Amino acid sequence: MKHITLTLSIAATALLTLPTLSLAADEKPAAGQRQRMTPEERLKKMTETLGLSQEQQDKIKAIFEGGREEMAKLKDTPEDQRRAKFGEFMKAQNEKVLAVLNPEQQEKYKAAIAERMKNAGGRAGGDKKPADAAPNK
To answer: Which candidate, 105, 99, 73, 104, places its Cα nearest to that of 86?
Structure first.
């Protein structure tokens, strides 16, 4: 009897654990993708790299929180339009953030955006240039 109870307990524990493990696995980005930062993580990183004041942090946090609602609306957008609308959204959000920053911080922020665009192949939002465009000299 003890053996059956122990076996049933182990089986029940395994059955209850498997869905949790599969949910955790679903949250990981697929191979070749990077995990997206939460607005809180983005703000923390910006504070570290740009030296944001508390007032700037509060304003940028409000911008990011307002963006959550916009992003939720984008999920209902047809896939063929979603990328363009996301680019427009990111460009508008970046402009709002730039308005909060001082000139030195703006330059650092623009450089970070340019680096992200370069690493993402021009898909990180904002102005997109064709890959075969000749560089300006």
So the answer is: 73
Choose between 71 and 64: higher pLDDT.
64
In tens, the pLDDT along 13-26 reads 555 554 444 444 44
Q: Given 3-state DSSP classes, what are the helix, strand and coil percentages for the chain, each rounded to the nearest 5?
A: 70, 0, 30
* Predicted structure pTM score: 0.60
CA distance linking residue 91 with residue 122, whole number of Å: 12
* Cα angle 84-87-90, degrees, rounded to a multiple of 5: 150
Query: Long-range contacts made by residues 58-67, C-beta under 8 angstroms, separation at least 24?
Result: 59/100, 60/97, 60/100, 63/93, 63/96, 63/97, 63/100, 64/39, 64/93, 65/39, 67/39, 67/93
> Residue ranges per domain, the chain?
38-127
Tokens standing for residue 109: 């922020």
Q: Confirm if 85 and 74 have CB atoms less than 8 A apart.
A: yes
